[in-house]
Design goal:
This protein is mainly α. The chain has helices spanning 2-23, 29-43, 51-66, 71-94, 99-105, 110-117, 122-131, 136-161, 163-173, 182-202, 210-223, 234-249, 254-259, 261-288, 293-299, 305-314, 319-350. It is globular. The chain crosses the membrane at residues 31-48, 77-98, 110-127, 139-162, 185-202, 209-226, 232-251, 263-290, 310-332.
């Protein structure tokens, strides 16, 4: 019971922080406000565990994002597939440029540094680091710091480079709410139940992040039929932003942060450097292709899939395009990173370096 009231207190305070940040016209205010408030609670010594709440929040988020994939959008994505693959591969490999910062600046071994610097997602990088014999704790911390820096910086970058998207997002946010009939609410309930069901089934599959991807694929499949599902209420996106913000802030445990201060600094610096590189690459790619600049900016970002797709929706960026970039990058990371590291470690061993 104490845990319930503690979580309720944190979520309520985080929602208040999100409301204040949104009222102050901070980009992605609900998520950023919740992140800052929950970080404050964590640094004050409170342990926050909302893994189960986050999982069901991801189910709702996956359904909501999947509803964006109309047949017309799917045809467009197929046409862009070669570009999406190339950008996904570039984003993953670009992290290697900053491996030296982790080996020298944070004094990590090459294996741990490799999985710290690759922008492949917190959970995926932690699992692969464990298999490779690297320090899972250091990888989780580095990847978490990377997510925090990206979430805080990318909405600002979009506002600076593409202000029209920010203005459109604000206009859409104040444009009114949709009225739901009892039949609509019944459909929403059935859709949510279906999303939870497929997520539980997908937990036994090979899918990374099944809580989000399986419901998303379920909603995409519905969109390709003659069914015309009701769009999930707008407030759900707001709730997801608060939950994601709290889950990110909950990882900022003070003891480990103090013991790994150099790693925190190196992670933040490398993320900023990587962000500059990928922003320039995205803007250059937009010049030579017909894809939307904002979609490229968010699609090639080194952030996590849930965070960046929520940010894309909140900032008026094409969700299907951004989600396709991040799904492709996750699949590439699953398929190639472990074999690539084994080959690289053998080369390092032959050169006399410690893998």
């Amino acid at each position: 019971m104490v845990t319930f009231w503690k979580i309720l207190l944190v979520l309520t305070a985080a929602g208040g922080g999100g409301a204040l940040a949104t009222a102050a016209h901070i980009p992605l205010g609900w998520l950023i406000g919740a992140l800052l408030v929950s970080t404050g609670f964590t640094l004050a010594g409170m342990t926050i565990r909302i893994d189960r709440i986050r999982a069901y929040g991801l189910v709702v988020l996956g359904l909501s994002l999947g509803q964006s994939f109309t047949p017309e959008i799917m045809a467009q994505l197929i046409a862009y597939l070669p570009l999406i693959l190339a950008c996904g591969l570039f984003t993953l490999l670009s992290g290697l440029l900053f491996t030296g910062l982790f080996t020298k600046g944070a004094e990590l071994d090459a294996s741990t540094a490799f999985f710290c610097t690759i922008p492949g997602g917190v959970v995926l990088m932690a699992v692969q680091a464990q298999r490779a014999g690297a320090s899972e704790a250091h990888v989780v911390l580095a990847q978490t710091v990377r997510l925090g820096v990206v979430v805080l910086s990318y909405p600002v970058l979009l506002h600076v480079f593409l202000p029209d998207h920010t203005r459109d997002a604000v206009a859409a946010a104040v444009g009114g709410t949709q009225a739901y009939t009892p039949a609509d609410l019944l459909w929403v309930a059935l859709l949510l139940a279906g999303g939870v069901g497929v997520a539980h089934l997908a937990r036994r599959s090979f899918l990374p992040n099944p809580w989000m991807i399986a419901p998303c694929l379920f909603a995409i499949a519905l969109q390709q039929t003659d069914l015309d599902p009701v769009t999930l209420p707008h407030w759900i996106v707001t709730v997801c932003q608060i939950i994601l913000g709290v889950s990110l802030g909950a990882r900022m445990v003070p003891d480990f942060l103090r013991r790994s201060l150099r790693l925190v600094v190196v992670s933040a610096v490398s993320t900023l450097c990587l962000t500059v590189l990928l922003v320039l690459a995205a803007l250059a790619m937009a010049r030579i292709s017909t894809m939307d600049e904002a979609a490229l900016l968010f699609g090639m970002s080194p952030g996590g899939m849930p965070e960046m797709t929520v940010a894309a929706r909140a900032m008026g960026v094409s969700v299907p395009l951004v989600l396709s970039f991040h799904l492709t990058r996750i699949l590439l990371a699953n398929l190639m990173l472990e074999p690539f590291w084994h080959i690289l470690s053998r080369l390092l061993a032959r050169c006399g370096a410690k893998p």
